[in-house]
Amino acid sequence: MRIISAQEVAAATPYPALIDALSAAFAEPGAVEAPPRAHHAMAVTGRAERTLLLMPAWDRDGLTVVKLVTVAPDNGERGLPAVQGAVLVGDAETGAWRLALDGGELTARRTAAASALAARWLAREDASRLFMVGTGRLSTALIEAHAAALPLSEVRVWGRRPEAVSRVVEWARARGFDAAPAALEAGAGWADVISCATLSQAPLIEGAWLRPGAHLDLVGAFRPTMRETDGAAVARASVFVDTMAGARGEAGDLLQAAAEGAFDYADVRADLAALCSGGHGGRASADEITLFKSVGASLEDFAAARLAAMRLAATRLAE
Question: Would you name any one GO CC term (predicted)?
């Protein structure tokens, strides 16, 4: 089995190609079998509760991809990413495991690419201001991915740790963005796109702060007990999701808003499959507030791993 490093994964999945690969995968429902992920809470003595995720997918040719992930919320205290994982790619002919891709890098990139794919349909075409809420591994991935889909030029960053905010701001400046720290209310009211990638258990973004035409990208709350917005934000927005199954089972922002009476799942406008296949046109007006809630799907891992495997194979042939 060939071990593929994070650097190799990044090189094999440039965002424009990755966004297109996800779009093609979502546009052809049924071409890939992607069962709902197995989701296990892990009690660890003396440490924060962890999450174990098992995500399989396969296509009609027999190509098989399985992702194994642990989410350790207290890893930030150790200077490590919360998400740790590996992605195994099985040979289409024999089923033998051929590649082991760095799961943290692949997860970050496919997650960010899914948000950028949604932004193609849901953000204003002239969206140039991004407010990044959260400073973990996904923060820089989300900035870079959105910049591949939108004409971003300005970035504002919020996080709980000032040193982490400074790190993300400096990273963005080094890549040509006008970047600075921002408070939550100020950043939310300023932004064309608000991207949230945290493990918050309480609302961070309030609906009253959203400007007309804003696009809200919610990535972090992947368990029913988590949320990054209040019910008013969900109520004000046209809601879109990555998959309906995931949104009904794990999307804390939507589940809690529904429990409060601020949202009904019948009001979800579309999922990524409908957007990418032409079943829904996305944003309807310049002033519409849109919301995209993702919890992740093994289809995304499959599309990203397949792209990486193809490009790695092509590179080896060229050597």
Answer: cytoplasm
CB atoms within 10 A of CB 35: 13
Q: Which residues pair with 50 in a beta bridge?
A: 42
Task: Please tell me the predicted confidence (pLDDT) of residue 205.
Answer: 98
What is the sign, positive or negative, of the torsion defined by CA atoms of 38, 43, 44, 46?
A: positive
Query: Considering the chain, what is the average pLDDT of its residues?
Result: 94
Domain region containing 211: 118-296
Residues 189, 79: one domain?
A: no
**Is position 113 within any domain?**
no
Mark whether 182 and 289 lie in a shared domain: yes
User: pLDDT tens-digit profile of 140-191?
Assistant: 999 999 999 999 999 999 999 999 999 999 999 999 999 999 999 999 999 9
Cα–Cα distance, 292 to 73 (Å, whole number): 23
What are the backbone angles phi and psi of residue 118, rounded to the nearest 5°? Answer: -60, -40
Q: Please check the confidence at residue 319 and state whether its pLDDT lies above 60.
A: no
Q: What is the DSSP letter of 82?
A: S
Q: 243 and 136, same structural domain?
A: yes
